[in-house]
């Protein structure tokens, strides 16, 4: 997805591998004094292994780089305070959004005082202008976020997400085992934030099989590009979901044996982020 | 305001002067084949002179650069179709917002089909990803924009802005003339989009005098960092505004004679965009 982005801008960023501290250490060595910050989602499908986040924090500090967490997805889901609260680590800056306003357009940049203050009025350094927007004074999203965050505090939202996600994962994993599809259809992520992985006969990731699965669950009244539960999902919702997935996995199993084309009605879906149509 | 913006990014942009075609010609000569687009507000305080916009369009076409209008302020104000409709010119791309949703957070990118299609699905080139947002499906802003644009079409909003702005400009200019302040307090911009300029004894732009003026109008119940009228402003609102400004200009005149410090209660306001506090 680099088309349209000037090369000088692309070259300002270098990439590392999650849970692979050595891959970040070597970047600091290759670009001494040039890395301003390390940005990452604190957790996506894979949890931090071997104290990865805390070690990364020490590595950043040693190299004078800021540690920035993107908590857009993890915020109010892993924990009301995001992955940083869940794992007991305080990044230098972090971003929240999505669940924060329960659908309303709002997001937040949080950070340590000494960094955030660079955008403020009480210093003599050059100003870093953190925010200037036309709709900065818009207030219905703020009202929605305040109300939403109050509900997160007063009601067991995160607990519910973990409980129902766990129930869902157990049910789906049973259905997978019954169909003997352990190597072809898999769940990943925390109970509160489940995704699924679809594989073909050769056990390679497959968009065709993903499409077949979507086709079959949609037939059964279920739209689920992922398996992320919400506070409104009841036990009954979860059970209905497990049932629809179980039935769909039977078709999946046949398609593995007889060929996915035989069962696929339309063309396979493509990933959202792709360089070509 | 460049603090925090990497030098390679800053060096991707070069600047020209509005209404000065030669300043753009020389940039095209200095950077042959390297200028992707020319971006500007089609009009701010100064109208296009000597067919500037049309000549700029020809210059861009000749050099293979896109012409992009920022119509955030001019859209639905100079004309329902923005400055491009007012001046009869079609830029390659343009942006609308602000008045479009009458306070709700919505904006639009418009453009010629062959450019906009690069973000779409019906071509074989590398994709240019124009939009991917969490809140892309948020709909109350869209509803607000549809309703607002319908009102612009059904009621004489733009005409009202021009008429009331004209009434305001005439009244304020009379007050300026009565106080003999023609060289010190001035209006600029179209009637629909008036701003004011404050000058000190040496006729230099002055934030201290701007602050004094703000102080005096606020005392008289008027908050006006600019003099941009809206559809809800009645004749009576305009007359009250002229009266408050007239009285404030009397204080302004005294401050010119006796020193602004004598009349200023607090410290002078600073411009929003400034490198240091």
What would you note in describing this structure?
The structure is a homodimer of 277-residue chains. The mean pLDDT of chain A is 95. Chain A has a 4-stranded mixed beta sheet with strand order 1-2-3-4. Chain A has a two-stranded antiparallel sheet with strand order 5-6. In chain A, helix 7 runs parallel beside helix 9 and helix 8 crosses helix 9 (235-258). In chain A, a hairpin with a 6-residue loop joins strand 5 (185-188) and strand 6. Chain A starts with 6 loop residues before the first helix and ends in a 19-residue tail after the last helix. The first copy, chain A, has 277 residues and is of the alpha/beta class. Chain A has helices spanning 7-10, 21-30, 52-62, 82-87, 113-116, 140-154, 157-179, 207-219, 235-258; strands at 37-41, 66-70, 93-96, 108-111, 185-188, 195-198. Chain A contains 9 helices and 6 strands. Chains A and B meet through loops of A and loops of B.
Secondary-structure-based class of chain A equals: alpha/beta
Question: Which protein chains are joined by the largest interface, and how many residues does each one contribute?
Answer: A-B, 36 and 36 residues
The number of helical segments of chain A is 9
Sheet with most strands of chain A? 4 strands, mixed
Helix content of chain A: 25-40%
Mean pLDDT of chain A: 95
Q: What's the assembly state of these chains?
A: homodimer
Q: Assign an overall shape of chain A.
A: globular
Portion in strands of chain A: 5-15%
From the N-terminal CA to the C-terminal CA of chain A, the straight-line distance is: 11 Å
Q: How would you write the strand order of the largest sheet of chain A?
A: 1-2-3-4
How much is the radius of gyration of chain A in Å? 22 Å
Spell the H/E element sequence of chain A.
HHEHEHEEHHHEEHH
Count of β-strands of chain A: 6
Query: Uncertain spans of chain A, ≥5 residues at pLDDT below 50?
Result: none
């Amino acid at each position: 997805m680099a088309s349209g982005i000037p090369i000088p801008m692309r070259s300002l960023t270098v990439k590392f591998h999650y849970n692979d501290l050595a891959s970040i250490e070597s970047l600091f060595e290759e670009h001494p004094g040039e890395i301003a910050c390390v940005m990452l989602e604190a957790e996506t499908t894979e949890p931090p292994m071997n104290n990865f986040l805390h070690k990364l924090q020490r590595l950043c500090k040693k190299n004078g780089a800021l540690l920035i967490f993107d908590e857009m997805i993890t915020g109010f889901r892993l924990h009301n305070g995001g992955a940083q609260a869940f794992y007991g680590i305080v990044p230098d800056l972090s971003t929240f959004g999505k669940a924060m306003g329960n659908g309303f357009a709002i997001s937040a940049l949080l950070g340590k005082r000494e960094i955030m203050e660079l955008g403020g009025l009480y210093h003599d350094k050059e100003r870093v202008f953190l925010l200037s927007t036309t709709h900065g004074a818009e207030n219905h999203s703020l009202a929605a976020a305040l109300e939403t965050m109050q509900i997160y505090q007063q009601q067991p939202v995160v607990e519910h997400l973990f409980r129902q996600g766990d129930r869902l994962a157990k049910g789906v994993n049973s259905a997978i085992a019954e169909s003997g599809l352990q190597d072809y259809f898999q769940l990943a992520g925390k109970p509160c934030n489940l995704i699924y992985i679809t594989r073909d006969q050769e056990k390679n990731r497959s968009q065709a099989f993903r499409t077949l699965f979507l086709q079959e669950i949609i037939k059964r009244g279920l739209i689920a590009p992922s398996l992320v539960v919400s506070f409104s999902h009841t036990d009954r919702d979860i059970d209905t979901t497990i049932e629809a997935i179980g039935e769909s996995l039977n078709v999946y199993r046949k398609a593995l044996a007889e060929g996915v084309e035989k069962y696929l009605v339309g063309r396979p879906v493509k990933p959202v982020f792709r360089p070509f149509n």
